[in-house]
Amino acid sequence: MNNPTDILVENPKPGVRLVRLNRPAALNALRGRLLEELAAALTEAGEDDAVRVVVLTGNDRAFAAGADIKEMADRTVAEVLGMDRRAACWLAYRRFPKPMIAAVNGFALGGGCELAMCADIIVAGEGARFGQPEVNLGLIPGAGGTQRLTRAVGKAMAMKMVLTGETIDARAALAAGLIAEIAPPELALDRALELAELIAAKAPIAVRLAKEAVLKAAEMPLEAALDHERKLFALLFATEDRREGVAAFIEKRKPSFVGR
Ligand code: HXC
Fold first, then answer.
1. Buried-most residue among 122, 156, 207, 249 (CB within 10 A)?
2. Which residues of the chain form beta strands (DSSP E)?
3. What is the pTM of this model?
């Protein structure tokens, strides 16, 4: 990746890659450049065996306030329909194979809420606000907001958010099942990194297949998904890490996983 400007990439703990969205003056509005840099960073993190978990965050004021409205202003139908690059970026986020945790403070609106929902776990600071306000612009959510949100919070809450454009706070988001935890704002990132560190210490192949299996809950009919789960479960019996995990339990010691 050539000198990203719209994101900052760090390695704060072993196995954990931290990506910060970095357009504070625009509340991290998701312009094309940011989307590309984020997709490149995730592709790189996905291919790097040393990275086990990615934490995605913004700043105190905003995780991301949505697509860059100014960049979007003059776009035509043909341009939006033909926006292969952007669609490819969103595909890279939602197909990211390793666990991704979003630490959200401030606004997560429109594409920002949709990006947070690409994460597997969302930790929000008190004061975070989630919403799909596209209807205020004469639009609808375009990166999963009508689908992922509905699967996360159910039809009633999703309809209310998508049709009114009203935001919900972190408490409502927790009650609705959109986020996993609330933390004091200054601790949301620390908590996300703590969860990441816990996951990074587990057997990598098991973690990867666990993510895949849970995502299938929203994608496959139940019988097929249960069958798929059973096969992934059986597959793990072929790994060195499964042998190590079981042996460590029996020998009353900590397992040492190698990712094979
Ligand atoms: C471009 C944005 C922006 C955005 C904020 N800014 N959101 N620029 N695109 N989405 C800029 C403002 O223009 C302003 O720049 C600066 O960030 C600070 O924002 P303010 O509005 O002054 O802050 P505040 O009064 O605190 O209000 C915060 C806010 C508001 C409530 C979040 O900014 C807002 O409503 N933003 C738009 C949210 C939205 O509609 N998102 C959905 C976008 S559509 P200047 O230069 O004036 O200081 C979408 C579709 C996704 O996301 C499709 C995916 C494929």
1. 122
2. 7-13, 16-21, 53-57, 62-64, 100-104, 107-109, 121-125, 129-131, 168-169, 181-183
3. 0.97
